[in-house]
Amino acid sequence: MKNILTLICLFLTGVMLAQSPVGAWEWTETRDGQKVKGVVTFTENYQAAAWFDAETGAFIETNGGSWKLEGNMMTEVPEFHTSDTSKIGKPSSFEIEFDGNDKMRIVGMETWATRVDAGEPGELTGAWLMSGRKRNVEIQERDTDRPRKTMKILSGKRFQWIAYNIETKQFMGTGGGTYTTVDGKYTENLEFFSRDDSRVGMSLEFNYELIDGKWHHSGKSSKGDPMYEVWSKRN
């Protein structure tokens, strides 16, 4: 009996430890009669959340930065926050709870987020910083430690990019949605785009290749301009 109880305890401990927010989550809520969709993507060390009109994709707000989980207490340190820049750089802690492995919420809130994926399949899963662009035939590198950053966070199925400055607290833009990686083709399906709502619903196909751990990303931008970007994994 003692051995059986020990095995049960070990099993339950394993289940508890297996609960992790890493991946993508989404939910819907109502704000002043408006149906709003919320999405949040967690990588091992960074997260990004966005809210947009569930029907039109019109952008509402975004925030994100680093995070850690100790027990059920999550602590986040925002690097960007469009609705309250005073929160940038300041740790904020709150309790979260899971219902199985597919539901999560902040304790005290009514709305549960539903898991979209747990980081799979996603060859590109993780947080990336733009570290270079190709100009003509030469790649011009960019210092990823500078305050001005362009970050892209990908789960197994969802992506969000954000351009911001951690010193000035300036927000330059964001966009996101779902993506696929098939046979060297990376395809983004836009669900929101802060700079131009008219591009919501577009599917953009790019070539991608991992070279020495860096993501080489080429094709045409949402404006139709040719582009070649290099992204480095953020630890």
The CATH first-level class of the largest domain comes to Mainly Beta
What's the architecture of the largest domain, going by CATH? Answer: Beta Barrel
Largest sheet geometry: 8 strands, antiparallel, barrel
Average predicted local confidence, pLDDT: 91
Tell me the strand order in the biggest sheet.
1-2-3-4-5-6-7-8
Q: Within the CATH hierarchy, at the fold level, what is the topology of the largest domain?
A: Lipocalin
Total number of helical segments? 1
Q: What's the helical proportion of residues?
A: under 10%
The ordered H/E elements are HEEEEEEEEEEEEEEEEE
Task: Determine the N-to-C terminus distance.
Answer: 45 Å
Shape: globular
Instruction: Return residue spans where pLDDT drops below 50 for at least 5 consecutive residues.
Output: 1-17
Give the C-alpha Rg.
19 Å
The total strand number stands at: 17
Please indicate the count of domains.
Answer: 2
Which structural category fits the helices and strands?
mainly beta
At the fourth CATH level, what is the homologous superfamily of the largest domain? Uncharacterised protein PF14869 family, DUF4488
What share of residues are in beta strands?
Answer: over 45%
